[in-house]
Amino acid sequence: MDEPMRQTLSALDPEQLRAVTAPAGPVCILAGAGTGKTRAITHRIAYRVVSGEIDPRGVLAVTFTARAAGQLRERLAQLGADGVQARTFHAAALRQVRYFASRLLEGREMPEVVDSKARLVTLAAARAGLRADRAGARDLAGEIEWAKANLVEPSDYAAAAAKAARDMPYEPDKVAEVFTAYEEIKRNRGVIDFEDMLRAAVWGIEEHPDVAAQIRGQYRHLVVDEFQDVNPLQHRLLQAWLGGRDDLTVVGDASQTIYSFTGATSSYLLEFPRRYREAVVVRLVRDYRSTPQVVGLANAVIRQARGGEARLRVALQGQRPPGPEPDLRIFGDEASEAAAVASRCAELIAAGTPPHQIAVLFRTNAQSQSYEEALAEAGVPAVVSGAERFFDRPEVRQAMVALRAAVRTTPDDTPLPAAVADALAATGWQRDRPPGGGAARERWEAQAALVTLAEELRLTTLAEFCDDLARRAAIQHSPTVDGVTLASLHAAKGLEWDAVFLVGLADGTLPTSHARTDDALEEERRLLYVGITRARQWLWLSYGQARAPGGRARRPCRFLPQLTGSTQSDAGGGPGARPRARRHQIVSCRICGATLIAGADRKLGRCATCPSDRDEELYERLREWRRVVAAEQQVPAYVVFTDATLAALAERKPTTEAELAAIGGIGPRKLAAYGEAVRALVTGRSVPQVTTSPPEH
Ligand code: ATP
Ligand code: MG
Fold first, then answer.
1. Which residue among 3, 98, 466, 580 is the one 20 to 30 A from 602 at the CA level?
2. Domain count, the chain
3. Among the three residues 456, 476, 496, which one is the final residue of a domain in this structure?
């Protein structure tokens, strides 16, 4: 085996290796968050390319967000597998429809793709005699999206919605009417929506043998990341690409299904091994991403999950060294929460964490604004993570034009960073004047990233730099914009950061008040799970009780574990002090360090699944003592102490009254009645006489 191949394989565990080196054919990885699924697919592609088995141009790897696709391309380029197409379903479909437009559209122009349904849906609702406000339009648009993703036509909507038990504030017949009107309006205006584009790609392949032959001739090896989130329309497109072939690798985690509200379903993932009986199926449980503390909290949250997706969940096993406990904070209102998050970000950055290794994640995009402001106020650079890719940003494209133009006028001996900064200054960018926040700051940061890149690259001339940028743009290998990421939980899927702030964890926000059915609530729980599992080292969870100062207090997110709280202020008073917050006591497993949530685990001081380090001899002595005491007092043994309490005593061996009191099941009365006897048993002293009557209950 040659060196690059050896290197590709050396960074994998045995299960990953099995998936990576599996022969051509169906491969399925069913595994939890952070277990290396994406790593396995990138290595599988690279291994097959580097070994000469496949041509990189024959690979199509699909995923769900532009950022995740960018990351796939980046990881592949690092592994020496340039030239692989890694795209979202939408981007792949758009590209194919565009490419074959002349054949598919018979000379007509490619219609514009509308990026939001809301406006057209409002018009359609009016036509159907419905007055839909913003929330109503959103519900209707969501319903139309669901129907189209499920290949349901307007005439079949009512029946399909009833079958799927859709929860809608409008009559199904009315929704069908709006849906019909919406399709008509689009046709009249000559525009299409995202689903139409996917349908055009499917139809292009299914109805045009020449198009099918060309596409299938090009894409011979298909790979899908986050396969738990494909919807029937996307699945049909995948089948069209495959055309009955089976060189398909899929990876996913049913516990991270977060798009079922738009029609996605984890059933394709879960049924894959049945659909392809000869598939190589691999399961991974080792979590390489997060500390045991983060993994423990994630396990505790998903352990409570119900429904189909929960069937195959597995407890993750953290592989990283222990780290800090997750921080749970409750603030008086949202503004204090945002201010505290910003100041904690500033602290992390001051202590050496690069801003791009920090993310603030929230349930809805509307929550972004207050964090943009708070971070700007604290002087922390931020990047709002939209779907937009770095080299697609207008200011970056404009900057590249300006740089190219400056090649002719820049003297050869100008240092590259200065040449880049000068060229950008000509477009109005001011190095020393970063705007306060929001979109303007984001634009400034994007341009600043180009200067930083010029400083980092060992290139000499502006012409070389322009060529390098063009190459990067072609593979979307964007320079990392050094700002704290602000993103929705949906957009954070598949990504990871050293420090993650999960904010706005109030019931009504997460879970959103729109989640009314059990299924919808389970999806919200999975969203929290996705959020928690993004963190490598530091995890902060918080919410503001009131939206605004003095407002109505809300309850914390119901999926957060029950925590016993101690009240503590963050900092002393006085001007500039951080907002006061209640901080919750987190109990960790003394074996693996994970956060303990369940009452029984907290009593034991370890996860029920971790090996016990109980002193068996002491346990027997305690049982014998309990038998004697119970007999004397003529009560059942469990009235003295339950087995669980005895087990906890034999594990934790409390020698002080405080340690004893910390063990669940030992209240003040039992402490007074039996405390001394138990401590004597633990330390091996002679056991004093116990009181003759049991403590009252
Ligand atoms: P998600 O479900 O969130 O998409 P994932 O299963 O795709 O997660 P990856 O992103 O591939 O997980 O891996 C998580 C982290 O663990 C990455 O930083 C990756 O480099 C690292 N990692 C994965 N496998 C290994 C391994 N065998 N040894 C060391 N690090 C690994
Ligand atoms: Mg992944």
1. 580
2. 5
3. 476
Using CA atoms, how far apart are residues 521 and 510, in angstroms rounded to an integer? Answer: 9
Has residue 197 been placed in a domain?
Answer: no
* 126 and 186 housed in the same domain: yes
Say whether both 659 and 555 belong to one domain.
Answer: no
Q: Cα separation of 329 and 340, whole Å?
A: 10
Indicate which residue's Cα is closest to atom 19 of ligand 1: 36
Single residue among 140, 162, 192 that ends a domain in this structure: 192
Length of the chain in terms of residues written: 697
CB 635 within 8 A of CB 693: no
Kindly tell me the burial class for residue 474, based on how many C-beta atoms sit within 10 Å of its own C-beta (0-12, 13-18, 19 or more).
exposed
Residues 129 and 35 in one domain: no
The reply to whether 438 and 321 lie within a common domain is no
Q: State pLDDT tens for residues 34-83.
A: 999 999 999 999 999 999 999 999 999 999 888 888 889 888 988 888 88
Q: What is the pTM of this model?
A: 0.72
- Mark 616-648 as b/e (b = at least 16 C-beta within 10 Å): eebbebbeebbeebbeebeeeeebbbeebbbbb
| Tens of pLDDT, residues 326-346 | 888 888 888 889 999 999 999
Is there a single domain that holds both residue 84 and residue 230? Answer: yes
Specify whether the CB–CB gap between 250 and 27 falls below 8 A.
yes
The rounded mean pLDDT for the chain is 85
Residue among 417, 384, 390, 416 at smallest CA distance from 480: 390
> Do 385 and 487 contact (CB within 8 A), yes or no?
yes
CA-proximal residue: ligand 1, atom 31 (nearest): 288
Range of the domain at 138: 115-192
Using a CB cutoff of 5 Å, list residues around ligand 2, an ion.
37-38, 494
CA 36 → CA 130, 440, 539, distances in Å?
A: 48, 36, 20
Assess whether the previous peptide bond of 654 is cis (omega < 30° from 0): no
Q: What is the 3-state secondary structure (H, E, C) of 209-266?
A: HHHHHHHHHHCCEEEECCHHHCCHHHHHHHHHHHCCCCCEEEEECHHHCCCHHHCCCC
Outline where DSSP puts E strands in 99-247: 112-113, 191-192, 221-224
Better pLDDT: 613 or 142: 142
| Ligand 1 centroid to residue 49 C-alpha, Å | 21
Ligand 1 first shell, C-beta below 6 A: 11-13, 16, 31, 33-39, 253, 256, 288-289, 494, 496, 533
Q: Is residue 85 within 8 Å of 69, Cβ to Cβ?
A: no
CA of 464 relative to ligand 1 center, distance in Å: 34
